[in-house]
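This part of the workshop introduces the protein records we will be handling. A record pairs a protein's sequence with a compact description of its fold. Comparing a sequence with its tokens is the quickest way to learn the format. The record below serves as our worked example for the rest of this section:
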Amino acid sequence: MEYRELGRSGVKIAPLGLGTGNFADPTPEDEAGRIIGRALDAGINLIDTGNSYSAGESERMIGRILAGGKRRHEAFLATKVFYRVGPGPNDEGLSRLHIIRACEDSLRRLQTDHIDLYQIHRPSPTIPVDETLSALTDLVRQGKVRYIGSSTHPAWKVMEGIMVSELKGYVRFISEQPPYNLLDRRIENELVPMCRAQGLGLITWSPLAQGVLAGRYASATDLPADSRGALRGGIYSERITPMGIDVGNKVLSLAAQHGLSAAQLATLWVKDQPDITAPLVGPRTLEQLEQALPVLEMTLSAELAAACDELVPPGSAVASFFNSADWMKHRIF
């Protein structure tokens, strides 16, 4: 397997990363352990989580699993900070106070002395980026964090962080983690060119478009009872659109013509787009991970790439996966 460099950091990660948003909700710990073990055995080294996932239980699970198997050294471990994690007025956001507290809490839950990649989960509309970057720089200098990145930021906000780091000598982002799939290609317009020019890696989330590109939904209104759209509602159900389901059905047919599952084609498409370092696959079960692993060794043909461009043209979208970001006002298609 060919590993890819994460931005200009020199760190090498597999062309697929393991997302853990399903851990604890609904994936139980024994199944999560099997998923992590199999992913590491297959060469996947990036494990991505967040301190707000399942109220911190995702981090706790990962910590117990890696410590119990003595495999922490095999993982490039990433987590995030921003969302509310407690009832207090300082239990959220990107202030120095919250970032340092949140980092210490994540270290305890993950049972590790350092976080490999600490990411700002969303941009703050009120906290100056200087305050945030100063706190992150201190964590890096203390050895508690190795690298920093951002997640679901507009291109201008990432660029602002880079420029402040350059001007003031703070640590610099090495990556951005946006949503990206065949239903929402808007990062191609500004974010991807900016990351290319500035040497940032792109770790992307939701390659299956929340299952729409895997044939999970037949209707935008009659959702399967055990689906994320039905169980979580809100922003999750908003992402399921008639236009998206129509594209998903076409992907299903296109994949079958080429001997692939729809999920494999959707993941492969993201993996082999220009400037993408690695999409995150977020399996709920070990079986779902096994279906994704062959993509590590696949290459997207020019024929398949062109066929996908016909379904959703570059830079466009038929569903919004930025609807969890307050800065993106256009939410529903």
Notes: The longest helix spans residues 242-257. The longest strand covers residues 145-151. The domain at 4-311 is CATH 3.20.20.100 (TIM Barrel).
